[in-house]
Amino acid sequence: MSYAIMSNETQLERYKKLLSYIDANFKEDINIEKVEAVCHYSYRNINRIFEALHQETIGKYIKRLRLEKAAQYLKYSDIKVSNIAYEVGFEDRAAFSKAFKSKYGSSPSAFRVSNETVWQEAHQSLLEKEGDDREPLQYEIEYLPDFECLFLEYRGSHKDIPAIESTWDKLFAYVNKKGMVSNDSIFMTEVIDDNEISDDINFRFNLAFLLEKPLPFKPKGLFRTKTHKRQKYAKFVHKGAHQNSVEFYNRIYAFWMTDVSLEFEDLPTLEFYPNYDENLPPEELLTEIYIPVV
């Protein structure tokens, strides 16, 4: 999905500031007063700007993020439904269940059972395909230190390769124009959403450039910066074209309980591309996948 272009840089900066705030705090109580304090605009005006750039009002965006996060908890954790409702910002379980069913077509409990069934079927299918002597998942436990990145958000289908490549081109052109690219430069992807939970219109991931030092300028347009804190990860390496990594991810999750048995941390999955070269055959490309764990 492409954003509308706004010529007013002040409006755009206030939109970016508000978006970063909401993304970090959407599970908390975000009222009109807090929104106005963050962006220094009246709620009515910033809501118009937000909707023009985002195709959603502030209220609808927050509600959708809460429900999608709840779906992730139901899919990847054993947290009780009542606790999930509270964790994502619903004070009433009945209201949460009603909103969840309206979005996903089933109750939270039924959604969890359905996903457990899918995982079990995937696990069994791969066991039958690979046999009892299958090779266990190969992974390493790594801690990534604090780091800062400059990023551009992609929003749309994970299958829309041309649109994704176009976003990569914009990011590369921007940092290259600023003279920031070197042989040691690191690009990465921050996977925010689950493509089986978020629809194609709203599925998000951030295409990012790691910063060696703080930017001496304020990013223009829709470019933003973000700091990642030190975190523990289970690191997997996929070899081959990136568009084929879906099957690799499916295998990771199908055998996670038997081969890894670590609890997921509620943070984005990271991807790094250590040998990327546009002249390298796709089957030789490497993708380092960092899944956050407790």
CATH class of the largest domain: Alpha Beta
Q: pLDDT below 50 for ≥5 consecutive residues: which ranges?
A: 1-5
CATH architecture of the largest domain: Alpha-Beta Barrel
Within the CATH hierarchy, at the fold level, what is the topology of the largest domain? Answer: Multidrug-efflux Transporter 1 Regulator Bmrr, Chain A
Kindly report the average pLDDT value.
93
State which percent range the strand residues make up. Answer: 15-25%
Cα distance, first to last residue?
A: 33 Å
Q: How helical, in percent, are the residues? A: 40-55%
Shape: globular
If strands are numbered along the chain, what order do they take across the biggest sheet?
1-6-8-7-3-4-2-5
Structural class: alpha+beta
Count of helical stretches? 10
In total, how many domains does the architecture comprise? 2
Order of helices and strands: HHHHHHHEEHEEEEHHEE
Task: Give the CATH H-level superfamily of the largest domain.
Answer: Regulatory factor, effector binding domain
The tally of strands reads: 8
Biggest sheet character? 8 strands, antiparallel
Radius of gyration: 20 Å
